[in-house]
Backbone:
């Protein structure tokens, strides 16, 4: 028993470098890119107008938060003069600009909502800063970088100098040296509660805005979010892995929606695979059970048990199987049988407590269960096995073309978090659900080209139910699709006719109400007059009456 324990510890110790190397490699893969694709927002200054730029300001979007795709935000900016790395309540009186002091406290008046908050970059995570700004009432956050971007000369010197950038000059100091790569505003794992957008601004640009704010100048900025809509077909990707629980409910329920969108969309699934070669898993012990192909293609062990249970190699194998299922049945971009496989796999080959229990995992190491599911939905397992072997398989020390393709695509798109959905090359933020993905796809069509189902179900309270019934039957009516619908859209003539009918009905109802009120009033007047007797009918302008009870005279 003691010997077995020692061997297990030695195995874990031998595998520790791969986890460290994986993290380092992940960052290096992304930072070797000139810029991450998928920037969907634009940022510009509205006031003072002298600081507005024709093409806006370069920036980096956060990989967390929920941007309002298709919308815009134009508000005044306050500068907190802090990095918000503490835990104390945010001081809303220590701000710029400070146009007026509170006569009671002698401090600046609180930030007037709504507002966008600018804060300094610091030692804490981006999520921490944005969360504190959100709690303070900010509708968006601009993080001012405190480091210049270095050119090669500055990088070789290690400090000092002036680096040139497209939007201006930036002076580096020994205290805050230049950086070789613009930081990525990544999620630290706790950003699920962030609901406001945020971005990182280059130092030389942020300094200009801060100087205006510190001089008590009102600065108003505009942020807009648009999905590229190049044509009448939206292309979208989902990055996941077979054991991540976050997108499992989505994958189990999205088939009716994707079938209703049909050829108007084109879906491609992707799977997050680690490069074992760059992580030194292709030599030595091949990183144990984490990898296939003698350490070439790896995945994290989902249950953190390297000696039993589901292994990283099992994750890679199931990923490859799904890639082959898609290649065989997904040529139309819809892939109904692929989605059917996911549905049934989630029912038959998953622990019943998945994904609600954190220690429950799918039975991806049970190949018989997978084969039974394929047979159930009409997929030929022999065809899929041939595809797996033709791509390079998982046992030999050879390159697998499909798995290598996933690694290359991951680096190209800059994917660092799973699950992640890309719509028209733009990374979708926020939760992955049937409603959110469906609405984002519908927002990505060229104006007037969205399919009929978008006109019926866009922003419906229950998108899944709307897709099933063909109309929005939830408590909230559907919003007009931002791209319009090919069919089922409301024409101008229909709208005018509907308005005329509505006005006619309301007018008729108003006339009936008017006649009824007049009749009731006349009856009441007659009742009052019955209490009086006429005195003189000859006075012009009215009839003089006196109450039989001896009341005052009145003209009526």
Residues:
């Amino acid at each position: 028993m003691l010997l077995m324990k020692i061997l297990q510890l030695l195995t874990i110790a031998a595998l520790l470098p791969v986890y460290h190397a994986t993290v380092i490699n992940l960052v290096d893969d992304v930072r070797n890119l000139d810029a991450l694709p998928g920037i969907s927002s634009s940022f510009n200054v509205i006031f003072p107008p002298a600081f507005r730029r024709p093409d806006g300001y370069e920036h980096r979007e956060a990989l967390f938060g929920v941007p309002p795709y298709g919308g815009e935000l134009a508000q005044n900016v306050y500068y907190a003069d802090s990095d918000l790395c503490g835990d104390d309540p945010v001081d809303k009186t220590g701000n710029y600009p400070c146009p007026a002091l509170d006569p009671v406290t002698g401090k600046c008046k609180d930030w007037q909502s709504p507002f966008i908050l600018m804060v300094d970059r610091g030692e804490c995570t981006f999520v921490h800063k944005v969360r504190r700004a959100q709690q303070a009432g900010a509708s968006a956050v601009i993080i001012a970088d405190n480091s210049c971007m270095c050119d090669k000369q500055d990088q070789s010197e290690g400090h000092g100098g002036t680096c040139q950038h497209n939007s201006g000059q930036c002076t580096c100091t020994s205290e805050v040296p230049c950086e070789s790569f613009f930081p990525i505003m990544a999620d630290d794992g706790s950003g699920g509660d962030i609901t406001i957008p945020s971005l990182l601004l280059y130092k030389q640009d942020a300094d200009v805005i801060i100087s205006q704010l510190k001089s008590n100048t009102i600065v108003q900025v505009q942020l807009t979010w648009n999905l590229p809509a190049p044509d009448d077909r939206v292309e979208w990707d989902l990055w996941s892995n077979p054991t991540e629980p976050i997108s499992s409910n989505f994958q189990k329920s999205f088939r009716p929606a994707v079938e209703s969108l049909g050829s108007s969309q084109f879906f491609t699934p992707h799977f997050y695979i680690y490069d074992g070669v760059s992580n030194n898993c292709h030599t030595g012990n091949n990183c144990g059970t984490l990898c296939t192909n003698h350490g070439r293609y790896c995945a994290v062990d989902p249950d953190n048990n390297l000696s039993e249970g589901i292994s990283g190699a099992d994750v890679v194998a199931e990923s490859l199987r799904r890639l082959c299922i898609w290649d065989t049945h997904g040529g139309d971009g819809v892939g109904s049988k692929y989605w059917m496989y996911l549905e049934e796999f989630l029912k038959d080959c998953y622990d019943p407590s998945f994904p609600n229990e954190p220690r429950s995992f799918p039975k991806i190491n049970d190949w018989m269960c997978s084969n039974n599911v394929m047979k159930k939905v009409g997929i030929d397992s022999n065809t899929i096995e041939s595809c797996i072997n033709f791509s390079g398989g998982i046992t030999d020390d050879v390159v697998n073309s499909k798995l290598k393709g996933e690694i290359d695509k991951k680096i190209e798109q800059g994917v660092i978090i799973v699950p992640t959905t890309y719509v028209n090359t733009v990374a979708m933020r926020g939760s992955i659900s049937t409603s959110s993905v469906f609405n984002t796809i519908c927002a990505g069509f060229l104006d007037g080209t969205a399919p009929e189902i978008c006109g019926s179900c866009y922003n419906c309270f229950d998108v899944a139910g709307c897709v099933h019934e063909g109309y929005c039957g939830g408590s909230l009516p559907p919003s007009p699709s931002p791209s319009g619908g090919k069919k089922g859209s409301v024409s101008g003539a229909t709208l005018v006719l509907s308005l005329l009918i509505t006005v006619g009905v309301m007018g008729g109802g108003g006339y009936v109400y008017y006649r009824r009120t007049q009749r009731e009033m006349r009856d009441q007047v007659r009742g009052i007059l019955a209490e009086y007797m006429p005195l003189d009918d000859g006075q012009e302008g009215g009839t003089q009456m006196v109450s039989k009870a001896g009341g005052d005279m009145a003209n009526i």
Summary: The CA atoms of residues 111 and 306 lie 53 Å apart. The two ends are 112 Å apart (CA to CA).
